[in-house]
Amino acid sequence: MKLLFDQNLSHRLVxxxxxxxxxxxxxxxxxxxxxxxxxxxxxxxxxxxxxVSKDSDFHQRSFVLGYPPKVIWIRRGNCSxxxxxxxxxxxxxTVTKFEVDATATFLILI
Length: 110
Fold this sequence. Notes:
40% helix, 15% strand, 5 strands, alpha/beta
């Protein structure tokens, strides 16, 4: 499963979650840390990633453009990287089902 973590999430999540979300990357690792949402969207689409973000812009974009890519929207205010890690770990089954659901465009995790 390939997740692309947006700049509003810690780059440390890639290593912290490598056991459950292998092949994931952070925008910083691929030179897109300061890139626009459009560039990040296009990169994810071309390379088979699901975007993970706390930014509602990707959620809105998914309504307009559909998928790919799919979007996982973390709806949590200011919180630690550990809290985000736990949300994604606890949601592995939900995320796996979301990935293969041909009708699902976005997933909200709280």
